[in-house]
């Protein structure tokens, strides 16, 4: 069992240890819905009451993990677009898809954030999450706009759809044990459960191409001098 953190650096490390433990457990158990505070503290090597020094609740811990997911997604897109220009809608959709499916726990958390996590923490903690997630969202739009031919309005539509489809798609493709057994009995009901990545890429590519077509780019001639 780790000793109680005393310095600010130690506290930051304990906080990160808890997040790392939660991430690992979500991956091993098949989703954040199976995570308990006791399991997280045990994995992190802390006393079962230790988590309260860093996070007031399970919901706050998971919301912090989601906030980190936004930062990781933003960083991945920045890295993918740093040296690129002239990306078409299909290229943009590919980058968006590949970077978000590389963050499966984040995809899972997107559902829980909207359903409960934001509403079950203190207002200031919800404000912090909103501030950081919107900043990451804006940075993603800016990076993709700079590197490609899609406008900010088109990209905002694409990212909004990505969040919804990734959240839903992850849940469908990771059924509970009961549903997994049911799909074995009736395979035609479970066909969507085993095609998360290719289905997401197909849908986002179609959306990117469509948005590029139906949302007009600003007319340079109408821009103010």
Describe the fold and architecture.
The chain is an all-alpha fold and 225 residues long. It has helices at 8-29, 37-44, 58-81, 89-101, 104-117, 123-147, 152-173, 177-185, 196-214. Helix 3 packs antiparallel against helix 4 (89-101) and helix 3 (58-81) runs parallel beside helix 6. The longest helix is centred in the middle third of the chain and has 25 residues, at 123-147.
The helix/strand series, from N terminus to C terminus, equals HHHHHHHHH
Average pLDDT taken over every residue: 91
Report low-confidence residues grouped into runs of 5 or more.
Answer: none
Number of strands: 0
Radius of gyration: 20 Å
What does the main sheet amount to?
A: none
Task: Name the helicity range.
Answer: 55-70%
Protein name: TetR family transcriptional regulator
GO molecular function: DNA binding
Organism: Sphaerisporangium melleum
Keywords: DNA-binding
In short:
The chain is mostly helical. It has helices at residues 8-29, 37-44, 58-81, 89-101, 104-117, 123-147, 152-173, 177-185, 196-214.
